[in-house]
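Quick sanity check, FeMo cofactor biosynthesis protein NifB:
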Amino acid sequence: MSHTAFISIGDLRRSRPALGDAAPASAGGCSSSGGAGKSGCGSSAGPEDMPAEIWEKVKNHPCYSEEAHHHFARMHVAVAPACNIQCHYCNRKYDCSNESRPGVVSQKLTPEQAVKKVLAVASAIPQMTVLGIAGPGDSLANPQKTFETMRLLQQHAPDIKLCLSTNGLALPDWVDEIVQYNVDHVTITINMVDPAVGEKIYPWIFHDHRRVTGLEAARILHERQMLGLEMLTARGVLVKVNSVLIPGVNDEHLIEVNKAVKARGAFLHNIMPLISEAEHGTFYGLNGQRGPTAQELKAVQDACAGGANLMRHCRQCRADAVGMLGEDRSDEFTLEKIEDLAVVYDLDKRRAYQQQVELQRQAQHQAKVDALAAAFDTRLADDGLKVLVAVASESQGRVNQHFGHATEFQIYEVGAGAASFVGHRRVDLYCQGGYGEDEQLPSIVQALADCHAVLVAKIGACPRDELQRAGIEPVDRYAHEFIEKAALAWFADYRERIASGAVVHQPRGDARLRLGAFTGTAAA
């Protein structure tokens, strides 16, 4: 039976019932701890770590599964412009094409326009499996627009997973609708569980028809966030908690946040660095509040190990992002380009394509298992040595990108028999068509300053020499290998060189995080 549909904006408008007419749908939950010997069902987990019904929800969700983000795409639609709180780190802009950060969009959409865009993207990018509403304000401060979009998508694109992001203030009022519209992935931004910390982050909230400030505002927000989280997990909805790390404000406190959200059943905890450059116009940016360094961010994340499972592959996406994590193809799908487009939504073709992508994902997973098993069999005695390695990768979890083409590097911590993903680093694009390349190189070196090596498919003589002078080893002999296998092979060789006296191991310094904007070339 064919599942091909031809959709127009008029079709979407004519199919609108009243809010609340959709049939209830059930959702599964997830324990915050795994079985014996398991780390729990976190972003790096596989099917053996969680119940089958939970694995079905996360296996192709690029935000909820570290493996999936190498293979599957997502998109956000900007249908929710209003917000009910003010954060010191937020300044929503509605027409900004060269920044990549939450709250930024180029176009606001109606629900009908949003669904037409989703169908156009899903037809052109068949590995797009997830649709999220993340602003540019708060999805639940705009409930009619949010749930109308979800209802239409259930009708016209039933295979796409639905997500929303919220600050949690209005969340307890809308849990029934979230479940009713089969939204089984929700992200709550929770930056504190102590209102005394919260009043340093939130100048005001708008709740119960009034504006509230100070400690009372933070107390109300905290109570509503905890209640909403408990209500969602009780209904089997997978919840990811986002926390913005603000040095000197909530950095140490985030350990308590991690414990609190784990106790209430959160599926993942995503600790993100503050974006505080003054050009973004936020209160923190204009008043000199700095963001964390790479090692400060990693230290807080590492301190939360054993609590709620951590997500480390977040890209702090725009509210209209399209494509794989780390890329943005939204300019290919503007309203002007899709308004008169006769979209062909072929569900059978999408499913067939995604089956092939899933086979690739399984191959990557097996290669990782094999690499770790081989490393375990051949490793030297574990002396506790661990180093960071940067990787240039385009897709599919392989070392398959030229150094000069990278706009970000994936960072792995490598030790005896283990290669663990710890994050990514955005960098200035080195290859600029022959112009300005020498100016870009120092900033790339600074972004990788805590790494001992960078694994690439290929690298030119100039950046090779510059990296070596900075104490970073450029490595291209593992081109197109799976990342874990390549990283462990390099580390084994590095250990042998240390043992033979060919190299002397030296600790590295800290690195600078580049946040909040694409380079001009990358955004063009």
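Posting the structure with no commentary besides this: The longest strand covers residues 418-426.
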